[in-house]
Amino acid sequence: IVRALQDGRFYASTGVSIRSETYDEERMRIEIDAQPGVTYRTRFIGTRLGTPLDSEPVVDAQGDTVRTTRRYDEGVGEVLAEVEGVVAEYRYAGDERYVRAQVTSSQPHVDPTTGKVLGVQQAWLQPVFR
After folding, report:
1. What is the pLDDT of residue 3?
2. Looking at the DSSP assignment, which residues form a beta bridge with residue 103?
3. Are 83 and 47 in contact (CB under 8 A)?
4. What would the mean pLDDT of 33-39 be, rounded to a whole number?
5. So what's the pLDDT on residue 118?
6. Is 90 exceeded by the pLDDT of residue 71?
7. What pTM was estimated for this model as a whole?
8. What would the pLDDT profile of 83-94 be if each residue is shown by its tens digit?
């Protein structure tokens, strides 16, 4: 487990399981461990070369800086492609700084402590830097 964490071979999830993920020089491909009756949508998110990376602080209603939030160019973290289904593939255009995948399912994400529905189940894969 420690080696996987050190190597960045992990993903965050609120219930979606990834069966496999492969990366090569041409593409990123993931296969979702699908549950019966559940639909899946994968968004490939990235930032292209040439996108300005500078940012501005965000301020609250009193004019005080919100320390954990900054405002970036709209090209930072843009959706590069969306794919429906249990297999999703993104072919690199060649101008990406990085690409990562976010998988959203139709299955509700229920807080195990309160039983409250907190949205839908998702998974966020580590970025692939180009």
Report:
1. 86
2. 42, 123
3. no
4. 97
5. 96
6. yes
7. 0.89
8. 999 999 999 999
Neighbours of 109 (CB within 10 A): 17
pLDDT band of residue 39 (cuts 50, 70, 90) is very high
Quick one: DSSP state of residue 119?
Answer: E
Neighbour-count burial of 40, counting CB atoms closer than 10 A to its CB (0-12 exposed, 13-18 middle, 19+ buried): buried
Q: What is the DSSP letter of 76?
A: T
Query: 36: which strand partners?
Result: none
Measured CA to CA, the distance from residue 77 to residue 96 in angstroms comes to 11
35 alpha-carbon distance from chain centroid: 20
Instruction: Quote the CA–CA distance of 118 and 65 in Å, as a whole number.
Output: 29
| Helix-, strand-, coil-residue percentages of the chain, each rounded to 5 | 5, 60, 40
CA angle 117/123/3 to nearest 5° reads 130
What is the C-alpha radius of gyration for the chain, rounded to an integer number of angstroms? 17
Q: Could you please report the per-residue DSSP string of 4-64? A: HHHHT--EEESS--EEEEEE-SSEEEEEE---TT--EEEEEEEEETT----EEEEE-TTS-
